[in-house]
Amino acid sequence: MAQAGLGEVALGEFVGVIVALAVAGLVAGFIVFGGILPALVLAGFAGSAPIAAYRRRRSRRRDQARDAWPRLIDEIRILTGRAGRSVPQALFEVGRSAPVELRPAFAAAHREWMLSTDFARTLDVLKRQLADPTADATCETLLIAHELGGADLDGRLEALADDRRQDSQGRKDAMAKQAGVRFARRFVLIVPMGMALVGLSIGNGRSAYQTPLGQVIVVVALALMVLCWMWAGRIMRLPDEQRVFP
To answer: Does residue 104 share a domain with residue 146?
Structure first.
């Protein structure tokens, strides 16, 4: 939840939204298909919408962090080198110009620093709030530089920024190649549901849905839609970078 920027959302609230959408899907499915089995399948699919939204939000937030960190690391290099800032000062100054979604984490870390002046605890707060592999690696590099000193901080940060740029560009290239497939994936839901709604207005379409055979066919069709949607999402999913210093 922290990776999606929803750390303050209670688990009960999240489950409540899932239940509400599942009930709405159940009612809509019963109205359209006139049977309990298709309505249950549609309820399950509707109830999964908050989970899918959470995953999209988490992915978007991690993409933003992945794109922002090379610039932030370069700014830390400049501030700790040419400007002569200390490592904590450079980190907090850079945090104020971070993307809006990341600023609350830097603000929380800054509050911890003002209260304790313990840089290790401060970086623990930042890592916990951001929950990002690049943030973990950057924080560990800055912690070592702050505690041990050394003149090679600039070189290490430069290597880290270059590595993050290459990783970000590689993911962007892969996403660009998948753009057409991702657009086509939406038709897995749009076309069958559109055909089902049109079928209601043709002849005895509604009564056909309510027959035992019609109910079985509808359930099988909905199940195939869900399976195809999940399968397509799975094969297009890019591997997540694992956190080394959580």
So the answer is: yes
Token digits of residue 204: 């005895």
Per residue in 139-192, pLDDT (tens digit) is 888 888 888 766 677 788 888 888 888 887 887 888 788 878 878 877 777 787
Q: For residue 212, tell me if it sits in a domain.
A: yes
Q: Does residue 4 lie in a domain region? A: no
Select from 84, 83, 73 the least CA-distant residue to 142. 73
Note whether 219 and 41 are within 8 A (CB).
yes
In whole angstroms, what is the distance from residue 47 CA to residue 9 CA?
Answer: 18
Q: How would DSSP label each residue in 77-144?
A: HHHHHTS---HHHHHHHHHTTS-GGGHHHHHHHHHHHHHH--HHHHHHHHHHHH--HHHHHHHHHHHH
| Segments forming the whole domain that contains residue 101 | 69-175
Amino acid at 94: V
Helix ranges (H only) for the chain are: 11-33, 36-47, 49-81, 87-95, 103-116, 119-130, 133-148, 153-177, 179-185, 187-200, 205-209, 212-236
